[in-house]
Write a structure and sequence with these properties.
99 residues; mainly beta; Lipocalin; eight-stranded antiparallel barrel; 9 strands; 0% helix
Length: 99
Amino acid sequence: MANADGQWDCVTKTPMGEQKSVFTIVTNGDTFTGSNDGPTGKVDVIDGKIENGVLTWKMKLKMPPMTMDATATVDGDTLNGSVKVGPLGTMTMIGQRRA
C-alpha cells in the first residue's frame, strides 16, 4: 500500500449531496490515528487498522448520534473508500492528497 500519511481533501457522496472534508491520517505500523473535519464538525478516527493495504476505521458523530464504519485504499495521491452510515447505507468517499 502506498504511504497514507498526510491530509486528504475528500468528498463523500451522501443523500444530502456531496460533503467535503479534510481527512488526516497518521500511520504507526499496522494502525493509524487521525480525524475527519467536515460540515458536521471534526470527528476522530477510532480503531484505525491497516490490513492487506486496506484502511478500516470508525467515527462517531455527535449529531445525529451514530457510529460510521469506513474503509479505504490509497494509490499514490488518490484515496478511494466507502463509509457505512447507519440506516442511510453505504456512501462513496474519494480523496486527493494535499500538497
